[in-house]
Amino acid sequence: MSNAETPTNTPVKANERPKYGPEHRSGGGPMGHGAGTGEKAASFGPSLKRLLGHLRPERPLIILVVAMTAIATALNAVGPVILGQATNLIFDAAVTNHVKIDFPAVAQVLEVAAACYFGFFVLSWLAGFIINSIVQRSVYRLRKQVSEKIPRLPLKYFDGQPRGELLSRVTNDVDNISQSLQQTLAQILTNLFTVIGVVAMMFYVSWVLALVALVTIPVAMSVVMVIGKRSQKLFAKTWKSTGELNSQIEEAYTGHELVTVFGRRREIADQFKAKNAELFEASFGAQFISGIIMPVMFFVGNLNYVVIAVVGGLMVISGGLTVGGVQAFIQYARMFTQPLTSLASMANLLQSGVASAERVFEVLDVEEETPDAPGALPSPVRGEVAFEDIGFSYDPDKPLITDLSLVAEPGSTVAIVGPTGAGKTTLVNLILRFYDVQAGRITIDGVDITSVPRSDLRSEIGMVLQDTWLFGGTIRDNIAYGREDATEADILEAAKATYVDRFVHSLPDGYNTMINDEASNLSAGEKQLITIARAFLADPSILILDEATSSVDTRTELLVQRAMKNLRADRTSFVIAHRLSTIRDADVILVMEHGAIVEQGNHDDLLAAKGAYYRLYRSQFAAAAVDEDAA
After folding, report:
1. Its pTM surpasses 0.85
2. Please, what's the b/e burial string for 267-286 (b: 16 or more CB within 10 A of its CB; e: otherwise)?
3. Residue 10 in contact with residue 413, Cβ under 8 Å?
4. Which residues pair with 601 in a beta bridge?
5. For residues 527 and 470, is the Cβ–Cβ distance under 8 A?
6. Could you tell me how far CA 388 lies from the centroid of its own chain?
């Protein structure tokens, strides 16, 4: 795994995926919703060339497949000529010369024809088997490239990209590429060689009939190209609509409780119907237009058949061609039309695959995070964090943090308070290098954090967020996620220190209790305590607590506060809190407004100053007093 890790792949000591602060939920970004996936597809040729470029590592096997296919189609192409010889033996003996048919000679000819067709079958089967393995390995490498690319993407990409849309690109589109290549590559090779071989044999049998058969092909190919260009746009729109539909379903499913509570089920259903209708229209249009190709090719084939039958009959009467030659040519005419029809029918599959490839390539082409530097943090890390005149903004026209300086002493607790949008979460995201500062620098123990690999930096930082994240598994597994080499004793120690042990024994299976996909079988406080235990087990040098008690009741909050107090012991801690009662014991309280620190000090000093913190404190507890009086 790359060291350039992202929020979705945080090191084990950063026990939560980072919270996207309200300061930067712009919905924009380099690959925002639907970005680069408009109805108009990118150029088909370059995208197809790039897709086929992923087959380059399989070049030796591809050469083998090409050779086998060429031999197989050659054996198939000589079959009609050989069968024509058998027809001539019978016709000449029975009709022209009125002699006994030489059945042994006919049998020998038929045996040669059977051997050719059997060889064609065996070589075609082997070529198909090999090319399927080539496609699967190539798609495996493509999927691996995408999975390795995602951890290298910056957080701003995920901020502007709906999860369902990204998942659709990684799963649906990659699967569609696999199916398209698997169903088309072998057939394309076979059909191309068949066309070449058949055309050669047609000229060998009769150049006159060959010209008659080929004269209508340019017209058919022109029609196919026109249809193909129109259907390609619709295939691109089909997969764009698929991604949007997946995003809408994922959003509605994860928030189904809120949807139900606010009575928005009908609205969600209407949105689904609208998205589903868009997908239906695009998919139906693409299939309908591309489906016209087959009737066009059948019409050309039947037209050729009629012309060849008439002209060939006249040539037999005039003595310019044998009956066996006409029979062979009619077979070649069918063989010639069949691969053309097959190639035309595969056009929609290939266009669909290329449309999906364009969407996957857009992910691969997103600008990555800056490369990691080879430096290192001191060992052991004391935990001094310094902000030196830093500046940062999500939008160049809207500065958020300017000239901010701060030093957090080792082992101290720094509380950050302020209104929504003040830059609190942004500040901790900068420490984790989810974003990089645009001015100044941040240091840990005097080392610039941009001079060390992101994974090394984040391995020294633990996080506990308001939005708890637990995966499907046991409580033991979720705690052990904090450290890969944790023993059973380590897990139990972390659970006891963070009060998880107190409620675990009331569960039927104790630490082996399975947490479901949404962790709905645990209360909010229990989930929060497990995430704190996970961070405790990770034993980070620096700790970030972001609104960790805002979603629990007052009684559970006391347990969570005690657990966090144990967790903060001897660690440099940054605590973001709206409940000012939870940070009274902080060594330093920072009051932020509009990205700047307007006040700093301890609880008593800031109250005595009667400034911004005093106003926040009074407004919060005045509101609480009003609520109590109303109750």
Report:
1. no
2. ebeebeeebeebbeebbebb
3. no
4. 589
5. yes
6. 38
What count of other Cβ atoms lies within 10 Å of the Cβ of residue 47? 20
Using the Cα atoms of residue 448, residue 454, residue 460 and residue 461 in order, give the sign of their dihedral: positive
Burial class (CB in 10 A: 0-12, 13-18, 19+), 98: exposed
- pLDDT greater at residue 497 or residue 566: 497
How big is the CA angle at 200 (ends 196 and 206), to the nearest 5 degrees? 145
CA torsion sign for 107, 110, 116, 122 is negative
Domain locations in the chain as residue ranges: 54-364, 385-630
Amino acid letter, 233: K
Predicted confidence band of residue 557 (pLDDT cuts 50, 70, 90) = low
For residues 291 and 552, give the distance between their C-alpha atoms in angstroms, rounded to a whole number: 58
pLDDT (tens digit per residue) in 118-130 = 988 999 899 888 9
pLDDT at 422 over 80: no
Q: Three-state SS for 10? A: coil
Query: What sign results for the dihedral spanned by CA atoms 37, 42, 44, 45?
Result: negative
Which residue, among 551, 576, 568, 549, has the nearest Cα to 560 in the 3D structure?
549
DSSP string, 363-405: HHTSPPPPPPPS----SS----EEEEEEEE-SBTTB--EEEEE
Give CA–CA dist 179/350, Å, rounded.
10
Is the bond into 380 cis (omega within 30 degrees of 0)? yes
Residue 573 belongs to what H/E stretch? strand 572-576
Rounded Cα distance, 402 and 461, in Å: 24
Closest CA to 460 of 388, 523, 555, 538: 538
Please tell me the distance from the alpha carbon of residue 10 to that of residue 45, in angstroms, as a whole number.
39
CATH number of the 385-630 domain: 3.40.50.300
Q: Mean of the per-residue pLDDT values for the chain?
A: 77
Please tell me the least confidently modeled range out of 120-124, 325-329, 588-592, 614-618.
325-329
Q: What is the maximum alpha-carbon separation in the chain?
A: 127
Between CA 507 and CA 528 the distance in angstroms is 16
Q: What residues does 392 pair with on adjacent strands?
A: 401
CATH label, 54-364, candidates 3.30.56.10, 3.40.50.10700, 1.20.1560.10, 1.10.540.10: 1.20.1560.10
pLDDT-based confidence at 34, cuts 50/70/90?
A: very low
Select the more confidently predicted residue: 357 or 23: 357
Reading the block at residue 364, the tokens are: 């691969």
Mean pLDDT calculated for residue range 389-416: 85
